[in-house]
Amino acid sequence: MEASNAILYGEMENWFTYEPATPEQVVRYAIIREAALDFARVVFKHTPPGPEQTAALWKLRECMLLANVAVAGSMHIIDEESGGLSFSNARLGAFKLG
């Protein structure tokens, strides 16, 4: 197994291990979801249907998911590349968007 594959393989157990949310995290997740849904309704109501509206709603969903990851554990931007961002999370390890 190549070194890069060994690192990924070693992280998989951590990535796919369920860790129950604390009561405080449950509250934070609910607040984030509620705020994202409120804004999604604003975008849906005040923008015309089309690819831009769809993209805006998908980006909002992505934002909500990243906020939830941030609640789950500390998150740090480790690299910015054209078209995407790389993140490091204490529980999930490193991952890239874009």
Helix coverage percent: 55-70%
- Helix tally equals 3
User: Structural class of the helices, strands and pairings?
Assistant: alpha+beta
Count of all domains:
1
* pLDDT < 50 runs, ≥5 residues: none
Encode the helix/strand succession as letters.
HHHEEE
Nearest-angstrom radius of gyration? Answer: 16 Å
Strand percentage: 15-25%
Mean pLDDT: 80
Q: Sum up the overall morphology in one term.
A: flat
Distance between the termini: 27 Å
Question: Overview of this structure, please?
Answer:
The protein has 98 residues and is α+β, with helices and mostly antiparallel strands. The chain has one domain (3-97). It has helices spanning 3-15, 23-46, 51-72, and strands at 75-81, 84-89, 93-97. The chain is flat, with a radius of gyration of 16 Å.
Provide a compact summary of the structure.
It is built from 3 helices and 3 strands. With 98 residues, the protein is an alpha+beta fold. The protein has one domain.
Short key terms for the protein model shown above:
98 residues, alpha+beta, 3 helices, 3 strands
Task: Give the SSE layout.
Layout: H1 3-15, H2 23-46, H3 51-72, E1 75-81, E2 84-89, E3 93-97
Antiparallel strand pairs: 1-2, 2-3
Helix pairs in contact: 2-3
